[in-house]
Design brief:
The chain has 380 residues and is α/β, with parallel strands linked by helices. Helix content is 44%, strand content 13%. It has two domains: 138 residues, no CATH class; 178 residues, Rossmann fold. The chain starts with 15 loop residues before the first helix and ends with a strand. Bound molecules: S-adenosylmethionine (SAM).
Length: 380
Amino acid sequence: MNALDIDVTPPDSRCYPPLAAVGLSPDPFDPIQDRACKLVDLYTLHVAIDLLRELADPALLACGASADDLLTKGGYVAAFRPAMGWLLGRAAAAGLDLSGPLPRTDRAAVRAACLAIAPSFVPAFTLMDEAAALYPRVARGEVNGDRALLMKASLWVAYFDNRNGYYALNNRVVTAAAAARAPAARPARVLEVGAGLGSATEALLKGLPAVERYHVTEPIPFFRRRAERTLRAAYPGVALEFGGLDVNGPWAAQGVRPADHTFVVGVNVFHLARDLVATLREAFEALEPGGWLVVGEAIRPHPEACVGAELPFQILQSYHAVETDPELRPTPGFLTAEGWTEALRRAGFTEIELVPDVVRLRDLWKGAMTAAVCGRRAQV
Ligand SMILES: C[S@@+](CC[C@H](N)C(=O)[O-])C[C@H]1O[C@@H](n2cnc3c(N)ncnc32)[C@H](O)[C@@H]1O
């Protein structure tokens, strides 16, 4: 089979028993969801080849040039270095031989194959396309990737939404993991960080058995105001609070009550923390004894793996503005299961578990996998 072919491999049925054990089966390996996600991943390969054709000198590519060589030859700005590295990494991960002409691509066919089975995935393709269109302009220093991509409000409103099947999976996994840890005897007090437009908040409010109070935090005022409007209208009976917490600063000084939360949650946020262990330590302090941290994240299968879903974020300087650590996170972006486990351990958490069990599953499913990273502040 050609690496660019739309005949993606179906899930291995041995994936299902470990998922059933945590109440997720067949998610995330529901055959349609699985095929649709693999087609989005394949789309990122087609995009990467198109961008290499546009941005990289073919003679240099053919002789195995590095991202730095391609950057210098193209006269591109230093901020584009991670994106150029990602393009090469995506091609290498697919086993493409760059010594000859680049293969033909057919983005429209991949997109059509995916949308035929999963029409709700449109925002995933829109995001990939919008980001891809910015790559050349970011490379030449004509625009700042953060400003140009993050200002596209309608893009994010459609993308971070439970009606977008590509994104909603993250929220379902986190909700299942949190619901399984909810105390039986009393309603939960929840703190959410980086809540964005409130898609995970909505899933958790629906999925947790009972909620006494929910503190929704998000630093971007546009996202926060919109989330507040939607959530207050949908959940008039829940005690909702809203705030602008930046996870990189001290949390108590930003209105977070110490030792007062049953859950601290965040979906696709914690990997953006500048000093991950310091941020996890703040989350630990916000939890009551016996409380749970539940973090929704895409998990990198191994430290060098190039993850297709990271295509749009490679042009964001904010995505790379984190402290790396050889053991926890040798690169910015997503962490491995081992990286997360070690980070939570260093921050003081016990009963650390990834839901589903990514380590057990990753021989059967080679790509990045969405998971809830869970850890507990021990009872005293
Ligand atoms: C990938 S989005 C996820 C949004 C939301 N959790 C959801 O799943 O719908 C990441 C969110 O993290 C927020 N964020 C980025 N840096 C942050 C920081 N330093 N502190 C808190 N939130 C941050 C962004 O504003 C954005 O809303």
